[in-house]
Amino acid sequence: MVGASRSNPKGHYESSDVVWAHRMIQQLFDADWNDPKMPDDWTETEDFQTGAGLLGRLLERDFDGPLSVVKDPRMATLFPLWEEAARLARVDLVAILVDREEKDIVRSLMHRDSRSTGSPMTPPKATRLIAVSLNGMKEWESIPHVRVRFPDDLLSGIGVWERVEAELNHAWPIPAEKAAGRIRAFVTPGLIHASSAA
Q: In terms of residue numbers, what domain contains 10?
């Protein structure tokens, strides 16, 4: 798992191998974290099939439980890749799509880069990153999905987790009611970057 950092002291809860794979795949198409737009014809290339095969093998190796979760912001623009990887690994995809105020995302990105590199992302670059990511997220709407608002739903208690469970028809390994205490202990409003709701 990707560990904690100055900008995220409680950890990222992202698979290190998946993040590495996403970075490698983006590099094949001259994309990266700051400019994640993929070429129009990328799904027709051999590199796309190679990337899908890599993710498919990771799914089979690391995410073989009845309910597994993959999280990485880069996924926003990589839906075709994950759709093909899931087909290869014979797993069903569902999505939790997170909505957040654009101004809060811009401030959060600037805060993150300032803490990690000492050089904050400029507002124009952040706005472009958001636009490309939001456009990519539309493709995720083609599979079963539920939308949650960040941080409002996160701070509202266990109701959002019960709604996600019901709308996606997937049971959490630990019922939300039983996990409520641990959820409240983990969620720290003061660590939410640049949010008017924090």
A: 1-91
